[in-house]
Design goal:
By secondary structure, the protein is an alpha/beta fold. The chain is built from six helices and eleven strands. β5, α3 and β6 form a beta-alpha-beta unit. α1 crosses α4 and α2 runs parallel beside α3. The N and C termini lie far apart (52 Å). 42% of the residues are buried. Belongs to the SurE nucleotidase family. InterPro entries: SurE, SurE-like_Pase/nucleotidase, SurE-like_sf.
């Protein structure tokens, strides 16, 4: 198996080392793991691509490349420049430092990379590690991801439909904010929404007098929709959410059509 890995925390992020270990176990001794990751942190860029300016790419070592672009740029670079004629069998994105459950999914560059891989027709899985009081101070905060990543990916790949028309499925996996020994299991869950949690900005004045705004996230431990990804993560479960790039609100189509007839 040939696997392409990327992330949004940057090529030197500790979560990418965890993902590299997961990918190498999945690929096996006869497989290959290739890295194309952002040269610098790209958290929060979503599915952004560098459409109006070029992306510099540099080889950092055997099968290891850094691109000055977004995670989706890295997938494009991997598929169309690094791999060229022989495509990877799987694209893995992560392991993100922090969760990409609930509303975070919409901003995540980790998710953006998996989405781009799916748009390229490739199996893709995004993985993120929830942080919280129970794992923040661990020697390895990614302990749950490292312990369960391989088996979760294998089960997803076994269930992934082989023939898919239209927008291909990709998968969002979030590991709970607990030590590996305290993980209660794995559940398939829909994307949720944390109650009254939104991104915001906090203004600061620089010594020069110029005004700057820092983006702030909401409370990551706020209650979420029962049974949803964030809800299950906070209860100690790994969540797996199947996704597509189709943003159509299919449940609203009929009512909206009626309004125009």
């Amino acid at each position: 198996m040939r696997i392409l890995i990327t992330n949004d925390d940057g090529i030197n992020a500790p979560g990418l080392k965890i993902l590299d270990a997961i990918a190498n176990e999945l690929a096996g001794p006869s497989g290959e793991v290739w890295t194309v990751a952002p040269a610098f942190e790209q958290s929060g860029v979503g599915h952004c691509i560098s459409y109006t300016h070029p992306t510099m790419i540099a080889q950092m070592g055997p099968r290891r490349f850094a691109a000055e672009g977004s995670p989706a740029d890295c997938v494009l670079a991997g598929v169309h420049d690094v791999f060229k004629e022989t495509l990877p069998d799987l694209v893995l994105s992560g392991v993100n430092r922090g969760n990409n459950s609930a509303e975070n999914t919409l901003y995540s560059g980790t998710i953006g990379a998996a989405m781009e891989a799916a748009l390229q027709g490739l199996p893709a899985i995004a993985m993120s590690q929830y942080y919280g009081p129970q794992n923040n101070e661990l020697e390895n905060p990614f302990e749950a991801s490292a312990a369960y990543g391989v088996q979760v990916v294998r089960k997803i790949l076994a269930a992934d439909p082989k023939d898919q028309d239209g927008y291909r499925l990709f998968y969002n996996v979030n590991f709970p904010p607990v030590p590996a020994a305290d993980v209660k299991g794995t559940v398939v869950a829909p994307q949720g929404k944390r109650a009254d949690t939104r991104f915001s900005v906090e203004p600061h004045n620089a010594p020069s007098g110029r005004r700057f705004l820092w983006v702030r996230g909401g409370d990551q431990r706020a209650p979420a929709d029962p049974g949803s990804d964030a809800d299950r993560n906070l209860a100690g479960y790994i969540s797996v959410t199947p996704m597509r790039a189709d943003l159509t609100a299919h449940d609203a189509l009929s009512n909206l059509k009626d309004a125009f007839e």
